[in-house]
Design brief:
single chain; alpha+beta; Jelly Rolls; Arc Repressor Mutant, subunit A; 7-stranded antiparallel beta sheet
Length: 266
């Protein structure tokens, strides 16, 4: 499957799925809500999100909307060969905003897609070249910063842990964590990755899942209530993330004769 670009509205009814290719969603008109395996956020015009392959994501368009969708298989031209470094953009889900230069490039993409004829022989090649240029620009803006020893600010992880625990029932985003640390989202993400060795998303998801695990073992709360208390949009969303991380459904923790299951914690 080659990479492809599409311009269309998102359904205004909440839906969810996953797929075996990476995806980038960018707001052109209107808004949308996304949750990608526990990481929630809003997409407004000139902002977007990265959806790695095989990550369950919930999405819902808000009113009249139009979004640019990039579907990117891992072996497609924009992520293969000399462009293989762009694949690291899909290490984890991420919400981002376009700067002035990328805003102009988005305008160009929208105009190109509006004028292209479906099924034209040159369409797929043109899509892949346009997607490659966008990934190159995004990679430069999101690439990890230099090592902490070169003056990068250290994040107070203890303070951040308290903030996460106090707000775990909310749909926390990386932007929320960055604001708590008084850093821009991009700088916070760079500092966090260098300091903690994982992305903020991975760190937050682990906190949510470990709290859910504790509640499963120490209470008789229904799974829907546990999902609500740990910031997942639904019981289904929690179950997908739990199974992906631990290799078994949440209900397995409440079955007798399962004493070794905790050894699979992330």
């Amino acid at each position: 499957m080659p990479s492809a670009l599409h311009l269309f509205p998102l359904d205004t009814i909440t839906k969810h799925h996953d797929h075996d290719y990476h995806q980038i969603v960018i707001g052109v008109d209107g808004n949308a809500e996304f949750e990608i395996e526990g990481l929630g956020g809003s997409i407004a015009p000139l902002s977007g999100c990265i959806v790695p392959a095989n990550h369950v994501h919930y999405y819902e368009g808000v009113g009249i909307n139009r979004h640019l969708i990039m579907n990117l298989p891992s072996d497609a031209f924009p992520l293969a060969g000399q462009h293989h470094e762009f694949a690291r953009l899909f290490d984890a889900p991420l919400f981002f905003s376009l700067d002035a230069s990328l805003t102009r490039y988005l305008d160009f993409l929208v105009q190109e897609l509006s004028h292209m004829m479906d099924g034209a022989p040159q369409q797929l090649v043109h899509h892949e070249l346009m997607a490659t240029t966008f990934l190159s620009c995004l990679n430069v803006r999101l690439q990890p910063a230099q090592e902490l020893s070169n003056g990068q600010q250290r994040i107070n992880l203890a303070s951040l842990d308290r903030y996460i625990q106090q707000h775990l029932s909310k749909r926390l985003s990386v932007a929320d964590l960055a604001r708590h640390a008084c850093l821009s989202e991009a700088h916070f993400t760079d500092c966090f990755r260098q300091q903690a060795g994982v992305t903020p998303y991975q760190y937050l998801l682990t906190k949510r899942l470990r709290t859910a695990q504790h509640l499963l073992l120490s209470t008789r709360l229904p799974l829907s209530e546990i999902a609500d208390q740990t910031g997942f949009s639904s019981q289904s969303s929690l179950s997908h993330a739990f199974r992906r991380s631990f290799g078994h459904p949440p209900s397995a923790l409440r079955r007798p004769t399962q004493p070794t299951i905790l050894n699979n914690a992330p």
